[in-house]
Amino acid sequence: MIPLNWVVGLGAALFAIGAVGVMVRKNPLIMFMAAEMMWNAAALVFVTFARSFHDMTGQVMAFIIIGTAAAEVGIGLAIIVSVYHHRHRLDIDEVSELKG
Amino acid sequence: MITQYGALLIYVLVAFLVAYLVASSSQHMGPKAPGGLKRVTYESGIVPEAPVKYFSVRFYRVAMFFMIFDVAVMSLYPWATSLRSLHQAGMLRVLAFLAIVGLAFFYVWNRGGFQWD
Amino acid sequence: MNGALGPEYMVVLGVFASMIAVMVSRQRTIAAYWAALAAVVAAGIWTAALWSSPALPISLYAQGVRVDLFSLAIDGLVLLASAGALLVGWNDARYGADFPALVLLALLGMMVLGLANNFLVLFLGIELLSLPLYVLAASGGYAESREAGLKYLLLGAFSSGILLFGLALLYGASGTMVLTQLANSSLILPLAGAGLALTVVGLVFKLGIIPFHMWVPDVYEGSPLPVTTFMAFGTKVGAAAILLRFLFYGFSVAVGWWEPALGYLAVLTMVAGNLLALAQKDMKRLLAYSGIANAGYLLVGISAHNQAGARAMLFYLLVYGLAVLAAFSVFTMVARERNSVSLNDLTGLARRSPWLTAFLAVAMLSLAGIPLTGGFVGKFYLLQAALDANEPGLAIGLVVGAMIGLAAYVRPLQRAFQGGDGTSEAPVRWPVAGAVVVVIAVLGTIGLGVYPAPIVHIVNHSAAFDWLR
Fold first, then answer.
1. Which of C16, C98, C190 lies at the smallest CB-CB distance from B9?
2. Three-state DSSP class for C245?
3. Arithmetic mean of pLDDT, C426-433
4. What is the pTM of this model?
5. Which range marks the domain in which residue C460 is found?
6. Within a domain: residue C29?
């Protein structure tokens, strides 16, 4: 049996890699993928704790996260493709007519 | 307990650091030679036939709709595994769910989402 | 109780009706708009009917959903926001026939955020609010809209990830997902602290508080005008409602963990948001920074952590929303085919359309907090709440922020009253739907400033968190 802390640690590591990925990378597709990785890290932690508590709600939450992530990916790819379609290149620094 | 989670905190910090170092090392350490061969699609040296201006959205669209409806159908599995204990109420709710998915399907169809051209 | 979720069911039916109208009707766009508006009105009537129900508060779905006067007040606010957005974008070919259904879906998310009492419903509400708004922000066919949609999507997914991980840690620390049970559970401390911090950061991201605000101006500027209207009002209501519920129900005991941090964020946001608003030339960006500053005012109500604070926050949400609706519907009329309004477009507006300028002036003065407008009363209640909570720092920040803001809001008015010969410029055209919005919003703003008693009565009942001071 793998100790609880290890799995939660794995979740934390996945979350950190995802967070850093969103901040460091410039390709929107990769950034989006990194954000999805953060979601999946959270789902993993939910399932881990649900198993240790013998509680179903955490598992349901993971299920809902997967379903929502699919919807988000559908919408996200649609937006990214429509941006790509009008620019023919993808670099977040070039998508900057709006200055923050 | 606190020392255990303190270790976890250190683990998280180290994870962030390692992830940052790995992700940014190519930027800091790699030689910077923009332009030239770097811009070629395949660095193996094979020149693409022609600059691709438009890429086909058709496959992408089909893949996207497949994925969305696929995950919607995935929601049926928990219901199917506990079908007997949920009785009629569960059946009614699943039918309502399928009706909503069906409405979405017909909406996409009606709005031309499945048109190949 | 069966009817407790009636308003939400009406909105769901409205989504279906609007989709079917698009498929069946020959004049698909206008039919979809009417179906959506009918659903919003029906949901509003149901909300009003539920208000005096003796069965409240009602908990449903294993305490996942809690219908009480607070959730009904939030319902009312977001219904107003979506009705305003539908009317501002009424039957506009640019946004297509899908616009009403998407607005209703986002509206449903905001209503769910008002009801949420466990992590699952909280997350579903946040996503139901965000996903349609990503699409709406990217709609309209402008290059800058697509860009805004992309930025909103990336930062939205990022902040949702932070929020989710925080919720996961909180679940691990407490063993429960229900907010009302969180307070009684024995928390594992470092884990719960990290979870609370991440969750609050995720929620504050959605609200647009200053260190996490960078997406707000870009997204507001790029999105189509009706969508910006909806985001400025509705999203703020939803995010503020869930932040208040999460902290007041879940962490009312461990106050020291979040109160000081949110207080500092509130002061920083109020002052810096208004300062940044000073430099803006584009009206949508001005209102975006104004929205950030106003989110800071809302945070004052939350971090005061007393009943007066919750009441003042609810009241201020209505005041802010009405002013935003009025300002944006005026801008939509001035912008016409374009998607932006700059300071220069307002030059000489007073000669072209004196009435429109008067309405804009009321909205801007209300945002600035001039007496006889709702903005003054709202800020006054917030100030009172901050002083009740013995937080003079919050009160000083609020006053300083409002004084800086005054300069920012007066600039467009000054432009509108100067220049312009009035000879070449035709008066601005008034679409009926937009005129309805602007007149109602302006009357409401003045009404709240002159005679706030009825709304104060409603707000006092709905924010009855009687375990607080």
1. C190
2. helix
3. 80
4. 0.87
5. 254-469
6. no
